[in-house]
Specification:
This protein has 247 residues and is an alpha/beta fold.
């Protein structure tokens, strides 16, 4: 548990506030099952074209870096060819479970349509919802740091099975601030929030993320949830009920 008083709670989402199964069995399949129709039917939409441009730039960077099996996107080709390349690139990235910004941004854009139409609903652990409310009432500031885009984070909390929870969350961070396994990312977040590192409690299901946060001086708790990947030996405090976290 928290070893000392804290002013800020920084939460992971997948495997922490939300079951991993929701992300892998609901959100990802929603994209793979709908992306072809979505891209082709909205091809001339400026927002879609912006996402295509971002994917093409990421593909060029991947090719330059020698990324294995990267699918190129040549925007000078005809529309049918470019659409095929974009869809093949998305399929390759999702199969590899990549965390790059261009892919995450497109996924978040598609998910918004799903949430707004009632085809998707964010799933939250009940104790996580209660804890977020508890922290908020106690004057603790709650932030989210997830590999999913800020847009995707807000959708899960805004369209959750416990109602709109965004009023309890002061801010969101994604991998644009840095990789979650890099201590510098947590240093940047703490600096942006404006608090001392040891006044921040970070909760995640990832040992590597907790190690990075610990290196940056944050307090840490390992989230233990059904469906989470097994972890080896570690020295972190654990919790499967966040409402039991001392204030």
């Amino acid at each position: 548990m928290a070893s000392q008083k804290y002013d800020v709670v920084l939460l992971d989402i997948e495997g922490t506030t939300t079951p991993i199964s929701f992300v892998h069995d609901v959100l990802f399949p929603y994209v793979t099952n709908n992306v072809k129709q979505f891209i082709e039917s909205r091809w001339d939409d400026p927002s879609v074209q912006a996402h295509v441009q971002a994917l093409a730039e990421q593909a060029a960077a991947d090719i330059a870096a020698g990324t294995d099996r990267c699918v190129a996107i040549n925007l000078d080709d005809n529309t049918e060819a470019v659409q095929r390349q974009v869809l093949e690139n998305i399929e390759w990235q999702m199969r590899a479970d990549r965390k790059v910004g261009a892919l995450k941004a497109l996924q978040g854009y598609m998910w918004r349509f799903g949430y707004e139409r009632g085809e998707l609903q964010g799933v939250m652990f009940a104790d996580a919802v209660d804890a977020v409310r508890m922290w908020s009432r106690a004057g603790r500031r709650v932030f989210i740091y997830s590999s999913g885009s800020v847009e995707a984070q807000k959708l899960i909390f805004g369209f959750s099975d416990h109602g709109n929870l965004l009023e309890y969350v002061e801010g969101h961070y994604d991998t644009r601030v840095g990789a979650k396994v890099d201590a510098s990312s947590y240093t940047a977040i703490v600096r942006d929030i404006g608090v001392c590192p040891d006044r921040v409690l970070f909760v995640s299901d990832s040992i590597r993320e907790l190690e990075a946060a610990d290196k940056a001086g944050l307090q840490t708790i390992l989230s233990v949830r059904p469906g989470n990947a097994p972890v080896g030996e570690h020295t972190f405090s654990t919790s499967s009920d966040f409402t039991q976290t001392p204030l």
